[in-house]
Specification:
This protein has 479 residues and is of the alpha+beta class. The chain is built from 15 helices and twelve strands. The strands form three sheets. Strands 1, 2, 3, 4, 5, 6, 7 and 8 form an eight-stranded mixed beta sheet that branches. Strands 9-10 form a two-stranded antiparallel sheet. It has a two-stranded antiparallel ribbon with strand order 11-12.
């Protein structure tokens, strides 16, 4: 138990004691103590001294208890005063009464002191304070006997009986309160240890949940290698950086029209599967998934980890995504009402990037003119083709030969927000890694048997070969 909870434990224990004292004292001790004024009057014939004395002690006692209940910041101080002060004042008043009426009521007051001492143990249960109150009571009683020694020495029987009863009562009260205090403290220790463990467990759960949320955020945007670097602290997550990056934008063709015409569930399945293909492919090439825009994806290469071939990675990712979409188009078409078609655009330029957002909601993104330009030129890209700003490509022929691209056009386009015409190059993809063949309108696996559309255990539709148990993912991996 740390210091904070140790302090809370002690404060709660004191509140419990004062709370118990408040309830039992006001409900039982005060009425009993005050009602004895009538007994005093009956036995002595004096009313005012007992009424005033008991009344003053009662009002002071109630005032102290109410102060401790209302102003909690004085609990620690009053805890060490109130119980001892209250019950010692009661016993002291009884001893004072015994001093003024020694002859008539010596047995009555002696018995009353024993009863009052017993009530101290019942209502307080704080061993140290009971010890102090008991010693004070014995001193007060002894002082009365000393001041009236001439009177009490003639009655040794009363002196021995009353003293022995009072001393025995004090000893029993001290021992009993000690035992009760030990049990009570142990109960409070167990209670607050349990509370501390529960709070500590909740803190661990929140910490783990936060760590899990952070991990899921990293894994959804970055490749496993980059996520690991973030977790190890080798990459900066607090400040924005500025550098040359390649911004890749992928947009679904005619998505607005399709979403208007199709049922929401069918459109969701098609878009979800498409974005799943795109995101997984991008992460395989260490390209950061910036955001999903509803019908498109924005990604960053060369941020946050630097690569000399960051533009080439974007080209390779586009080619791979196009091939995988073609592999899955039989399934996608069933939900999309036709083949899924995409437009790809890339622009390389300077931008600032980093984590943006406050508190728990943060996302890695890039800002700047280069990001805007990559989005603007996307609308000019051919369907299932790629458009790249000419400033991004240093050696166009190298990319065409190495990546099996075919240049479709090289022109200038006017983009919203840019005064000058932007020179761009458009490409189509020559290679197709699709190993699914279509014969007489039947979809055929490599083994020569027909592929059948079935739902997987994850709720996604896949083309499955019942002969060799291959599915579209197996065929893709084999390719």
């Amino acid at each position: 138990m740390n210091r904070k909870f140790e302090r809370q434990y002690k404060l709660a224990l004191r509140r419990e004691v004062l709370g118990q004292l408040h309830n039992t004292f006001l409900h039982y001790a005060v009425p009993i103590f005050f009602l004895f004024v009538f007994v005093d009057y009956y036995l002595t014939g004096a009313f005012s001294p007992f009424f005033i004395g008991r009344g003053i002690i009662t009002l002071v006692s109630i005032g102290l208890i109410l102060v401790s209940k209302i102003k909690r910041n004085v609990i620690a101080r009053l805890y060490n005063v109130i119980p001892c002060l209250l019950f010692f004042s009661y016993n002291a008043f009884i001893c004072l009464s015994m001093y003024y009426f020694p002859e008539k009521l010596k047995m009555y007051f002696a018995g009353l002191i024993v009863v009052s001492s017993g009530m101290t143990a019942v209502f307080v249960n704080v061993d140290r304070q009971i010890f102090v109150a008991s010693i004070g009571t014995l001193v007060a009683y002894g002082l009365v006997l000393f001041l009236h020694f001439d009177f009490y020495q003639e009655n040794y029987t009363f002196l021995i009986i009353s003293s022995s009863f009072l001393i025995t009562s004090c000893i029993v009260n001290i021992i009993g309160s000690r035992s009760v205090a030990v049990v009570r403290k142990k109960g409070f220790q167990d209670k607050y240890k349990l509370r501390y463990e529960r709070i500590r467990r909740d803190q661990i759960i929140r910490s783990k949940a936060k760590e899990l949320a952070s991990t899921e955020l990293l894994n959804s945007q970055f490749s496993p290698q980059i996520s690991k670097m973030f977790k190890e602290g080798t990459l900066n997550t607090e400040e924005f950086e500025s550098d040359i990056i390649s911004v890749l934008v992928i947009d679904v063709v005619d998505s607005t029209k399709k979403l208007y015409e199709l049922e929401s569930k069918s459109a969701y399945v098609a878009i979800e599967r498409t974005f799943d293909i795109i995101a997984n492919t991008l992460l395989e090439y260490d390209i950061t998934v910036d955001k999903f825009t509803g019908d498109g994806v924005m990604a960053l290469s060369n941020a946050p980890v630097k690569y000399e071939n960051h533009l080439e990675k974007c080209f390779q990712a586009c080619i791979e995504i196009n091939a995988r979409i073609e592999e899955n188009n039989i399934i996608l078409s069933a939900h999309w009402g036709g083949p899924m078609q995409l437009r790809y655009s890339i622009h390389t330029g300077e931008a600032i990037y980093g984590f943006i957002g406050r508190g728990r909601v943060k996302s890695f993104t890039a800002l700047g003119k280069s990001v805007n330009l990559a989005h603007r030129i996307n609308g000019h890209a051919p369907i299932n083709g790629l458009i790249v700003s000419s400033d991004s490509i240093v050696d166009k022929e190298f990319f065409i030969k190495k990546l099996d691209l075919q240049e479709v056009d090289s022109t200038k386009v006017l983009c919203k927000g840019f005064e000058k015409m932007i020179e761009v190059s458009s490409f189509s993809f020559l290679s197709n890694k699709n190993n699914i063949r279509k014969v007489n309108n039947e979809i055929i696996c490599e083994c020569g048997n027909e592929l059948i559309l079935k739902a997987s255990k994850h709720g996604k539709y896949e083309l499955v070969c019942e002969s060799c148990n291959h599915n579209t993912d197996d065929i893709k991996k084999a390719a």
